[in-house]
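So, read this over?
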Amino acid sequence: MEVKIRRARDSDARQLAVLRDMADVRRFQPMIPIPPSMLRRRLRQEGATSLDEERGHALTWMVIADGETAGWVSLRNIDWFSHSASLGFSVAPWAQGKGVARAAVSEVLDLAFGPGRMQRIEADCDIDNKRSQRLLERLGFQREGTLRAFARMPGGRRDFYLYSLLADEWGPGTKSGPAPGAPSDRP
């Protein structure tokens, strides 16, 4: 599959709402339904965020696989003082297990760890989400511990694992393969 990412635009709000509402997407994530109008506002606010200019606190990229919207990857809680952020990702059921998430997350990490950008990226995942655990570990993330009763889910509070990846652990020679130069984060 050909996988690309692009910065999410406010016009992607309806598609994001549909993806977020899929049971297989929400299975391991504490997501509440958000109407497209609210997602549209959030994406408009993110439009001013730039990794190049150290501005903003959240970014979302749409994942496109073989020309179809297949999911999203996001950086949240961007902290410009410590140069750290939290990674999140989801792919549609039809794209799971086909390398789509790995390709998309790798591209975002290439952007995030570009020169002068992030020094630490963390991610969390439900302790039963084996696919996400394998993906994070293949990309070089280290499991740091268990976040007890971390997320409120429909079946009750759930434990999550916390992972992290440092800038010097990513790039040429890492499990991701060669990293491109310093691609821009502009839409």
